[in-house]
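Technical appendix A lists one of the benchmark inputs used to test multi-chain prediction within the project. The record comprises two sequence entries:
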Amino acid sequence: MPNPSVDIDIDFSNPEILSALWEQCLQRLQEELSTQQFNTWIRPLQIEEKQGSIVLLAPNRFVRDWVHDHYLKLIQKIIMQLLSISIDEHEQSNNLAIIIDIGSKKGAYAQPIQQSHSHTASSQEHSRLPQQSAAPMAYNSAKASQQAFQSNLNMNFTFEKFVEGKSNQLGLAAAKQVAIDPGGLNNPLLIYGGVGLGKTHMMHAVGNAILKNKPSAKVLYLHSERFVAEMVKALQTNRMNDFKHFYRQVDALLIDDIQFFAGKDRSQEEFFHTFNALLEGHQQIILTCDRYPKEISGLEERLKSRFGWGLTVAVEPPELETRVAILMSKAEQSQLVLPYEVAFFIAKRIRSNVRELEGALKRVIANANFTGQDVTMEFVKESLKDLLTLQDKLVTVDNIIKTVADYYKIKVSDLLSQRRSRSVARPRQMAMALSKELTNHSLPEIGDAFGGRDHTTVLHAVRKVKELVETTLDVAEDYKNLIRVLTT
Amino acid sequence: MPKQLTLAGIRLQDNATFENFYAKQNQQVFAFLHDLFLSDENYTYLWGNTGAGCSHLLQASCHNAHDLNKQAMYLPLKEFIHLTPDVFENLEIMDLVAIDDIQCVAGKANWEEALFHLFNRLRANKCYLIIGANTPPNSLNILLPDLLSRLTWGITFKLNGLIDDDKVAALCMRATHRGMHMPEEVANYLLRHYSRTTSHLFTALDKLDLASLAQQRKLTIPFVKQVLS
């Protein structure tokens, strides 16, 4: 790692000095770059000192390479100016070297040193080694401290908080059975069903219950993507034996969304061996999948058949009563007083999955907290009106012209013509006023859209309609109706 | 070199922050994002029509995170669609990730899957996530149901666009932040004669700022005509 090759009196190892330098550099960068460039590429960087050099840490390879290619010279220039070092355009060796690397100052996510590779502002070589995940490898952290086995379980996902209904009864009974007798008859337990129906909650609940019964048990939850990522990392670093050993010593392995193994042959191969070893050792396996495993294309037949060796249970979308019960339970957890008929109203409108139901309730809670109002039916209708109506229709001038012509039963060509009779002029004025109200076009642009009229004509129409809406009942009614038709 | 460029150092910064956001129509979402890091809810979805202020609020949230000594990254996806989703790797080390224009990657299988995995990693690491879009989640045409259901999981806010009176007020406020005085009649003139989208109006303001500094002129209607013609 190159040291700065110029004499600098500043001690970069003093974090306060370094941080003050970086703050000043950020201010200058904010002036030089667009807000977007700054927020995207500069803000995520962190600065630190390593062996006397300034090191910029980027979250991943992509950001590191981008900053290296586009901004590192500028950063170097600014820092040298701030340090009053003269810049030698021709001799890079006389310039201050700033290294850009992948990582974070947060200890837990520190990049293993032997895997890091750096770029400096003075070096042009650009190695393209595969990206290393900054997250610690499960098997690494566990090895470092046998005591602190990280289960990754969400403590909130328990059986007590799981709302039972017809749609999930069978799965729940099987899951509870597994919690009592892990590694027993129901091994593996495979829970499948659509998204947002509680598969992951059920899986965590088993893990939490196993831990409750036997606190020393090694229960490990991870998403299939993490399993794949860790295996790739182990392969790259020649640590497959550690990887295998780690996964084969757990008491219960919980893998979420196994459909994402599809097409990843090497991961499937490794998972197959892990699966067999665990099954032979009477260690529990729990898997979730978004569909019946036999329907997953890109998954090896031998895996599909093994997944069915234990118990496979389906989770169905919750019926209305269960949705209401879920809302009441979530509201209670959030200390919100939710009247039953209001829960019923939300549950009737949002049918697809529990996540969406929760999202709606969160919005109601946020509104209640913001306004301090009680949660009544009217309040909920108002809070959720944006969620419950589909996307606002895109209102264009053309659409307004067509709608207004239809409404007044005249032809679009008449509306755009030079005719000035009242039967055409009034609807034309109405359409112009609506265009001003409902679109972002300027008055000249609106004039153009109406057969090349002057912007003063549009302005006159806008004023005229405003006046008529205030004084004439019929026109007010027409205006209101047209707004409704165009925006709902 | 154009003379304006030499003036960059004395212009007042007017980057997207909470201070220069005109929040009249969007008080609740403004208050929520302002205190985002006090909230138990880690995921927020904002949507609104162009010019409603989505990008501004996402960037202001990143700015605010930095002031609170937290790491944040703003990802405008419309700038990335021709690249690969590698930019999502390891972002769970951030305290806040703000992803803008998610509609740009809807229907692109590789992006959708990468976003799904990022969502899971951010959630597992309790990182805050704000997503900005031009439609509600259910209208995005997302193909991966696993991703779509997650997108509906958080608090969803619709951003209300500004009416013309608000745009005048917002223009005058942003001008003040830049150290300029914009008379209301000048703001009204801008709205009447140029595109009324907020992004166009603020771009015009940017031009006027540079020109008024360079020419040492106040903002008057004749000056606006001269600069923007």
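Chain B touches chain A through 65 residues (CB under 8 Å). The beta strands of chain B are 43-47, 72-76, 96-100, 128-133, 155-158. Comparable benchmark entries are summarised in Table A2.
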